[in-house]
UniProtKB/TrEMBL annotation:
Organism: Clostridium tepidiprofundi DSM 19306
The name this protein goes by in its record: NMT1/THI5 like protein
Pfam families xref list: NMT1 (PF09084)
The UniProt record lists the keyword Signal: yes
Domain SsuA/THI5-like: start-end pairs: 60-272
Transmembrane segments: none
Record localization: Periplasm
Lineage top rank: taxon: Bacteria
Keyword presence, Signal: yes
Entry's family note: Belongs to the bacterial solute-binding protein SsuA/TauA family.
InterPro entries: SsuA/THI5 (IPR015168)
Listed GO CC annotations: periplasmic space
Keywords for the protein's UniProt record, in alphabetical order: Signal
Amino acid sequence: MNQTLMKNRSFKLSHSKKIIISMMTCVFLISTLFVGCQKNNNKGLAKVKLNEVVRSIFYAPMYVAINKGFFKDEGIEIDLSTGQGADKTMQEILSGSADIGFCGPEQVIYIYNQKRDDYPIIFAQLTQRDGSFLVGRNKEPNFSWESLKGDTIIGGRPGGVPEMTLEYVLRNHGIENGKNINIITNIAFTATAGAFKSGTGSYVTLFEPTASMMKKDNSGFIVASIGKSAGPIPYTCYFSTKSYMEKNSEILKKFTRAIYKGQQWVYKHSDQEIATTVKSFFPGVDEDILTESIKNYKKINAYAQNPIMKEENLNRLMDIIQSYNSSLLPKRPPFDKIVNNSFAEKIVEEFK
């Protein structure tokens, strides 16, 4: 009888082990299948390495295009990296580390004038005004540029487009750095808001969302838009090397279509909806700040409605550069040499 009990117990234990092993095998197979499916989510997509100059809510239409799946709809997987500077973004393109660059077109102009064989060419535009705001210590509903005479402003990096655009606006109002205004240009871009809060300067130039964050904690208030005062310029655009464009025209066409969808989506949706869509790109920033930032950019028509670059707007940017320092731009490149609007024009025509 004891032997019979032992056999029954042995059978039950053996049977239990088999059940446990079977269950574990099933879990493993399901997990493997799930992971495999996740890994294959992007299977068949063409990977495009995109380098952006900085991370900014100013570029909301691009982040919308990514998060809404407009690139994936075109068969493209975006591998996004951040250059932290227009010169660094350009270097990523020239070295072949990135396929498409995203920064100001002035970099394309400078490289073309260096007579490089495989020079970069612009194929789409995202923003159409300078994205910086003049922030003061008090609310100034009746602000005028002329009132800045004798003041001190924390500006941008010498030779950078934000600083050049600021000085262009000031000159148009009879104000010149070193004569009747003092512009501080030796503070790092990421430290200008902190310097202003610490008591430096009467005004500071800031991009969003920093400007709206200053307003929220009552440490600064937007008094003017530099972009609105300067007029339309192609502030940020997409470009690739000439050789990449020749070999990957279909990719660039699809890329441009996704960007255009993002631009149109931004124009058709509310500030709140846009903020909710792109907030994953800005961890730690309150959604209400993002909403306010988008509202401020839409108010000055900063986001281009389509990716086509206008020659007169690029000419205005070159006016700004040459008025700041003519040696930076001794020669103006022909528009059709550094800009290829064919992709953007075809895409816009498709949606009519």
